[in-house]
């Protein structure tokens, strides 16, 4: 009985550890707000960046770990100048979000997830329970790195270096 139970747990964990390679339709349809307060879907943003590697940084102006990681982001931007840096903020305050972009001189594409980090199809899909959260999307639009929570994670550089 114990062996059967243990086997079932191992099977369950191994099935759940597989990382998605594509966003769900619901996540693709998530509405983002740009700096001009225009709305655009995640699908459209990723489509415009197709053919280029993209690093997604899910962050917030109030997140200490996010702010501490900004110098490392800037280093990656210098090391990988052809990579698109897509910043998705979970700030509920638009003025705070915009002030932080200016204050920290964040260069890249900026969008806000207006429902914050607890609601919405995108945050549900990635099971967002901590920020910062980093993802890498390859040139074909496939997710090559599903989850990193520290910008110093070696998996980020490996995914950015990987040639498709």
The strand count comes to: 7
Reading side by side through the largest sheet, how are the strands ordered?
Answer: 2-1-5-4-3-6-7
**Global outline:** globular
Return the domain count: 1
Number of helices: 8
What is the end-to-end distance? 46 Å
Annotated CATH architecture: 3-Layer(aba) Sandwich
CATH-defined topology: Glutaredoxin
Fraction of helical residues: 25-40%
Largest pleated sheet: 7 strands, mixed
Just give the CATH class: Alpha Beta
Instruction: Look at the structure and name the CATH superfamily.
Output: Glutaredoxin
What does this structure look like?
The protein is of the alpha/beta class. The protein has a single domain (21-161), classed as 3-Layer(aba) Sandwich (Glutaredoxin). Helix content is 39%, strand content 21%. The protein contains 8 helices and 7 strands; from the N terminus they run ααββαβααβαβαββα. The protein has helices spanning 2-16, 25-28, 42-48, 64-68, 70-79, 94-103, 121-125, 154-161, and strands at residues 31-34, 39-41, 54-59, 84-89, 109-112, 133-137, 143-148. It has a 7-stranded mixed β-sheet with strand order 2-1-5-4-3-6-7. Strand 6 and strand 7 form a beta hairpin. It is globular and about 45 Å long. It starts with a helix and ends with a helix.
